[in-house]
Amino acid sequence: MATTEPTRGAQHETLTTEQDGEILVVRLSRPDKRNALNDSAILALDAVFSRLPPGVRAVVLEAEGEHFSAGLDLSEVSERDATEGVAHSMMWHRAFEKIQFGSVPVIAVLKGAVIGGGLELACATHIRVAETSAFYALPEGQRGIFVGGGGSVRLPRLIGVARMMDMMLTGRTYGAEEGLALGFAQYLVEPGTGAAKARELARRVAGNAPLTNLAVIQALPRIAEADPATGFMTEALMASVAQSDREAKRRIRDFLEKRAAKVANPRG
Ligand code: 1HE
Q1: Given strand 113-115, what is the order of strands in its sheet?
Q2: 105 in contact with ligand 1, CB cutoff 6 A
Q3: Catalytic residue among 79, 120, 131, 200, which?
Q4: Alpha-carbon span 154 to 146, nearest angstrom
Q5: What residues contact residue 40 under an 8 Å CB cut-off, 6+ apart?
Q6: pLDDT tens-digit profile of 78-116?
């Protein structure tokens, strides 16, 4: 990563961005409302992820204050009719699709409340780092509503349909430790250290060949959901495209000529 000072980017009412070399930090910035997601926040996310600044190779999505996000801004729900409700949900889908199927990996820093639409947002990112304060809930049942930010598509793929049903029907919540074991997050860290961990991971991600990162976020989830025959063929095509890239040839030559790092054994 460049050693220059981070540059402040787009400043929306509900989120801010800051570029630090190849890493863009997107920060939900409505802590007094526990980062509840109103229309303005969703449109700002859509705008940021539609046009990442040139040179960005990974994004860190984090939040100001004690909580990642309390979910849908309930103060905006009241007067929507059924047609407007569908359009509203589809607006969330469009924004989160740009996060999940954008051009670069996105790493979220979870803490405190990761609730409802906040959990749906987290599920659209690729790597989730949870601080031990994080807790997960889907209080839609208590509020008389339903998930609308792609949660019923993405969350069962992480934790299973039965567990999501239980959360929605009974209001069951999970803490950070359980959440790690169940697949809500891939990393668990001490309070206050999530941002640093996410930046460390983002730097590692940014150091990969861009085409491999693109294949991981675009091809892998589609292959995983395809019928096996289609999956194998798509994998073969993707593997061939990736290895034909000049960047792959350079990296493999570096390894063979002893200029590249070996894979580290976790046991040292
Ligand atoms: C909000 C929201 C919100 C807080 N919409 N304003 N989400 C929920 O059902 C979660 C509702 N929130 C809570 O349960 C709690 O606020 C928290 C556990 C997240 C945090 O508690 P706490 O004690 O730190 O804060 P607080 O005092 O409850 O809230 C601080 C302020 O934020 C307060 O406003 P104030 O004007 O009185 O200061 C709250 O009203 C406000 N606030 N959460 C609006 N969610 C695409 S469909 C997705 C469907 C869903 O996401 S359903 C889940 C909705």
Answers
A1: 113-115, 135-137, 174-175
A2: no
A3: 120
A4: 14
A5: 12, 13, 14
A6: 778 999 999 999 999 999 999 999 999 999 999 999 999
